[in-house]
Design a protein that fits this description.
CATH topology: Mannitol-specific EII, Chain A
Number of domains: 1
Strand content: 15-25%
Radius of gyration: 14 Å
CATH architecture: 3-Layer(aba) Sandwich
Shape: globular
CATH superfamily: Mannitol-specific EII, Chain A
CATH class: Alpha Beta
Helix content: 40-55%
Number of strands: 6
Order of helices and strands: EHHEEEEEHHH
Number of helices: 5
Largest sheet: 6 strands, mixed
Distance between the termini: 9 Å
């Protein structure tokens, strides 16, 4: 599965001012609240999603470095990986492992019980975002549609 298949343009936020007003845990809560109504046939309770993602974040930061944070959780109510992307060109303190601000926060929700799918999903996204040219292009996107176009082009070029 490609990253673009986990996203829709209504789940891509480009430089939203509201994101900069939250601390890391408040931002995660906000992202969970924003994704809930946008998931087709959502069988999960929004509080269940929020609690699962926050519990995972409390164990260890999901700020994986290279300007990327991937808060995520596995939940039994999901049939396929689902994601939301926030692009923060000014940078955001997410307590990343490289101590640098993140420019991309990717909320990833994965079906529980499929470890291979879980690892493959996170690896697919990480491979895409570890490309500095891709990150630079994406950080300059002005709309969610432009961001999706950049993602699809990068996937096509890299055959991810």
């Amino acid at each position: 599965m490609q990253f673009s298949e986990m996203l829709t343009t209504d789940r891509i936020y480009v430089n939203p001012n509201w994101a900069y007003t939250f601390n890391k845990f408040e931002l995660i809560r906000e992202l969970c609240q924003r994704i809930c109504p946008l998931i087709p046939d959502n069988q999960c309770d929004c509080c269940e999603i929020e609690n699962a993602v926050l519990e995972r974040e409390k164990k260890q930061t999901t700020g994986i470095g290279e300007e990327v944070a991937m808060p995520h959780a596995s939940l039994p109510c999901f049939q396929r990986p689902t994601s939301l992307l926030v692009i923060l060109p000014r940078g955001y303190d997410f307590a990343a492992i490289d101590y640098k601000p993140v420019k991309f926060v990717i909320l990833v929700l994965i079906p529980k019980g499929d470890t291979k799918l879980h690892l493959d999903t996170l690896a697919c996204i990480a491979r895409l975002f570890y490309n500095p040219d891709f990150r630079k292009q994406l950080s300059h996107a002005k709309t969610s549609q432009a961001a999706m176009q950049i993602i699809k082009q990068a996937e096509k070029e890299s055959k991810i």
